[in-house]
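Hi, here's the filled form for the chain we discussed.

Project: internal
Contact: R.S.
Residues: 466
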Amino acid sequence: MDSYRISRRKFIGQASCLAVGGTTFLSSVLNLKAMNAMAINNSSVVNCNDYKALVCLFNSGGLDAFNMLLPRTTSEYNIYAATRSNLALPYNDIRPINSLNTPGRQFGLHPSMVNIQNLFNSGDVAFISNIGALVAPMTKQEYYDESVTAPLGLYSHSDQQMHWQTGFAHARSATGWGGRIADLLTSCNTNTNISMAMSLSGTNLFETGNNSVEFTLSPYGPVGISDDNDGWWYNTLRKTNITNMLDATYKNVFEQTYKNITKSARTGNQQIEAALVNAPQFTGVFSQTYLSDAFKMVAKIIASQSNLGMNRQIFFIDYGGWDHHDELLQNQMDMLTEVDDAIGEFHTALSSINKLDSVTTFTVSEFCRTLTSNGNGTDHAWGSNVFVMGGAVNGQRIYGEYPSLQLNGPIEVGGGVLIPSTAAEEYFAELAMWFGVANSDLLDLYPNLGNFYSVGNGNPLGFLNI
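And the returned structure, exactly as it came back:
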């Protein structure tokens, strides 16, 4: 038995890894956020008996979005080509799209985006153009003379990622708008062991609420105690002892809270594992890339939502690496191919399980990149383009205002940087409204929203059927 002797230190060390991947309970406990997370019910929703999910694809690093959505009208393309110089895509390589709401103007997509081209033309994808973090509407002169407050830390990766995840362009915040929505709608779900917010990319600010934290999965499934169901005597002994510790009652409130969150994480992990056994396998649908695997796992969880007691879910996938100061054309070709494959495959999977109308997938990135070349890449900029996909999308349209890409134009402030004409908060608010958030809660979620949109006056942008 000497070769199987387990030290007390090793036993405790391995036991302490309990469900770290299952939920981010450790950071929650350290912040004492979990003290009341299990008991709070802040829902202001009258009826959420239907199922809806938001899926956020965060393209972190700063996606060069004016090589993703491009002008094809001859005069506008010529301006684009002159401005972008050696980074301009050849006209004949651009994939044409048939936009219904841009009369007299033609647009197209990056040559890698064959699936998204088809989904746009069939009405399941829409774009929002020249969108970005804003505190209030701003002109070029107001930018120069600083008479209107600019977003905090403009052009900074960390600050702009924070703004897109929190909905607070004017300040830093410890909570994200996805997490705050989960706070509001917590009563929609009957399962208290699994958070409404689920991350395929670890801990994130977007899904951190005042009383909510994300439940973390890997693209290959939930991560709990290794070999928890293995029959070897050591693993059986370890499982028994961990169970005894989690069933105990502790007088110290910190210990009791830690125990409660850990036990809930373990139970939730087990529930997800059981549900995934009967989930569709989507054989042959998804490519073998990390991003496609992440979307595949989201599709499996969505297919299992009824068994998991979930009527509302928020998913987060971070696909980083877009900070292309060099080798932009090749890097973007490769990465947009992966995005396009994953979005097309996810659409096919959702259609096969009859969930397409119930799921809205939306993209964000902290900022766009300069229209001008730095030699072989681009630098940090501001106004950008994003897209949204789903059965509830009023697709085949470009929302917002696709800008002139002329240098020294009315919203170009130098170096190929564009002031956004659409605020990110308008985008977020429409997603929240579709998800079931009451109008009365919108200004609490997005404090600057009133500078761009009169709450209760229709949809902020109109890209979703609400």
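Let me know if anything looks off before we file it.
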